[in-house]
Structures are given as structure tokens and as C-alpha cells.
Amino acid sequence: MLMDVICFIFYMLASCIIVAGMFQEKGPNKLAAITCVVIAMGLHVLILRSGIFIEPNQGQNMSMLNVASLVGWLISVTMLVASFKLPNTILLPVVYGFTGLIVLLSGLLPSAHVMQIGVQPSLLIHIGLALFAYACLAIASLYAVQLSYISFRLKHKTPSLLHSSLPPLMAVEKILFKLLLVGTVLLTLSLISGFMFLDNMFAKEQAHKTVLSLLAWGLYCVIMMGHFRFGWRGKPVIWSTIVGGALLTLGYFGSRFVREVILNA
């Protein structure tokens, strides 16, 4: 639990450094923020290793909070690497703060959902594709929120307290559609692998996840076809992306949150 708390503190320190820097002309202290978040990510890896990989030959603990923690780590690493090239500084405090909170919750609310992934390599492929698809599309939802904020600022011409300039609208929009394309492809592969390798996609305990994932997949496909064929952009794309992310979140974590956290609290 001590490591969880320390990891949480370093994630929050990185978030605070970035937020504080946004109100200064010189901007955030990038070296200090990167140092804090790298330490947090290193501790996070150790926490994931001890939390997911339990006793040898006993399987892996893929509880809801462990999976959420793993997804948070994937998103944080991706956003950190992307920050050297892409305009995402305003999103980093949200990502790091959320990931730190998940780490703390996983320590406070331990739960178990043991799986024998090593016995089924096909299951590992499906889970890997699902995790990367969700991470990519979750980042797309964050960019959609950022795009909405920039559009609001430009439309209303409201002054900002943030000294650090917001990224260009077109640059954020371009990144959003790239993320949607990659995420939709990964989600498609994840669903195909699930139907190929798993026998219980529509079983009682999996039906909601499958249905919600298919609905999100259909929505993302409509967005991409509408964009490439009819030039869709703006509010419909932004809100559809956010709704798709919400559907995936409900599908991946909804019922498991009720079973593993609320009922066991």
C-alpha cells in the first residue's frame, strides 16, 4: 500500500506542476513534470507486476481495478511519449491525475478475478487488442474534449487565464481522426478475435460487454465513413466520439464495477 501511495503522490505532483505552469508565461517546468511522472510510471509497473501476476502457475489477477490500472498506465505512457511531438499538454494533468487515482483505489479496494491467460494464447491476443483499442479510443475521447474546448474559445473569443497557448484547431482535429482510425481498426480486430477464439461472447456474464462494444464499433465506423466520404467534422464527430468512449467504458467496466467494487465494499 505504501508504494501505491507514493506512486499516487508522484502522479499528482506531475499534474500539479503542469497545471501551475499553465498560468505562467514561461509554461510548465517540463523536466520536473517528466521526472515525477517517470518515477510514478516506474512504481506503477512494479505495482502492476505484483497485483496481476500472483503466485506462480496460479494465473493472473485481471480484476476490474487491475485492468483499469493497466489501461491508465498505457494511456499515461502514450500521452507522455506523444507530448514531445503532439499538442496535448492541457490533457496531461487529467490523464496523470486519473491514473494516480486508479492506482490508489486498486490498493484500497483489492479484488480478485483470476484468469489462466498463459494456458490460452488466443485469450492473450484478444485481451491485448482490447486493451490497446480501449486506450487508443479513450485518448481520442480526450482529444475530442480538447477540440470542443478550443472550438468554444474560438467561437466566443473568450480570454483565457492560461498563458500557454492552445494548440491549433486543425492540428488537434487531425490527430483525433488518426486516433479514431487506429482505434477502430484495433477494436475491429479485438471483436474478430473474440468471436474466433472465445465461445461465450454472448453468455450471460459477457453479453452486455459484447453488445456495448458492437454498438461503439458501429458508431466509430459511421464516424469514419462519414468523415472520409462526406467530410463530417465538428460537433457531431466530437459528441459521437465521446459517446463511443462512454459505451466502451460501460462495456469494459460497468458490470464488473458493480460486482467487484460495490457489492464487495
Class from secondary-structure proportions: mainly alpha
Radius of gyration equals 19 Å
Number of E-type strands: 2
Helix count, per DSSP?
8
Quaternary state of this entry equals single chain
Instruction: State mean pLDDT (0 to 100 scale).
Output: 84
Number of domains: 2
The percent of residues in helical segments reads over 70%
User: Which of globular, elongated, flat, extended, rod-shaped describes the shape?
Assistant: flat
Question: Gap between N and C termini, in Å?
Answer: 18 Å
Element pattern in H and E: HHEHHEHHHH
Main pleated sheet: 2 strands, antiparallel
Q: What spatial order of strands do you see in the largest sheet?
A: 1-2
- Strand-residue proportion: under 5%
List unreliable stretches of 5+ residues.
none
Task: Give the secondary structure arrangement, pairings included.
Blueprint: H1 2-22, H2 30-52, E1 60-61, H3 64-82, H4 92-108, E2 114-115, H5 121-156, H6 169-197, H7 207-230, H8 235-262
Antiparallel strand pairs: 1-2
